[in-house]
Amino acid sequence: MELQPLFETPNFTIAHDDLHHWLYISWRGEYDCTAVITGCILILRHIELTKSQKILNDSSQVLDGWNEVTRWVGESFFQELANHGVRAVAWVKAEDWPAKAAINEAMQYVSQPLADTFDDTVAACRWLENIR
């Protein structure tokens, strides 16, 4: 992946993969409801700017803190992704057990776009590459 950084803080990164034309999102550390929603809004803005149709959402380094927003992420945020033209989201699961459980719960609410979870970024990249 050749990534062009678009937005970066110590806990959150948005980058654009020019070769594959998808967004790479990296979440690290602990989050509260406000921080998750703020990150999601930033993702939507960068989808508008880049016209990306795929997302590699790397939560492998996330710690607990998503429980309050799992339903909102799965229903509302993923629906907004679809509304903004996103066709596929590959979500790399957290290693932290409570955060991993929150990701699994959020996925139960996703109806669109096409989305799947992965244990590592290599598998997630392969899956996204095969989505046309």
Query: Helix count?
Result: 4
Binned, the helix content reads: 25-40%
Radius of gyration (Å): 13 Å
CA-based shape? globular
What structural class do you assign from the helix and strand content?
A: alpha/beta
Q: Biggest sheet, in brief? A: 6 strands, mixed
Kindly report the spatial arrangement of strands forming the biggest sheet.
1-2-3-4-5-6
Mean pLDDT: 95
Q: Distance N terminus to C terminus?
A: 18 Å
Strand content: 25-35%
Low-confidence stretches: none
Order of helices and strands: EEEHEHEHEH
Q: Number of DSSP strands?
A: 6
Set down the secondary structure blueprint.
Blueprint: E1 3-9, E2 12-17, E3 22-29, H1 33-50, E4 54-62, H2 70-83, E5 88-92, H3 97-107, E6 114-118, H4 121-129
Parallel strand pairs: 3-4, 4-5, 5-6
Antiparallel strand pairs: 1-2, 2-3
Helix pairs in contact: 1-2, 2-3
Describe this structure in words.
With 132 residues, the chain is of the alpha/beta class. Helices cover 39% and strands 30% of the residues. The chain contains four helices and six strands. Strands 1-2-3-4-5-6 form a six-stranded mixed β-sheet, with helices on both faces. Helix 1 (33-50) packs parallel to helix 2. The mean pLDDT is 95.
Descriptive labels:
six-stranded mixed β-sheet; 4 helices; 39% helix; 132 residues; alpha/beta
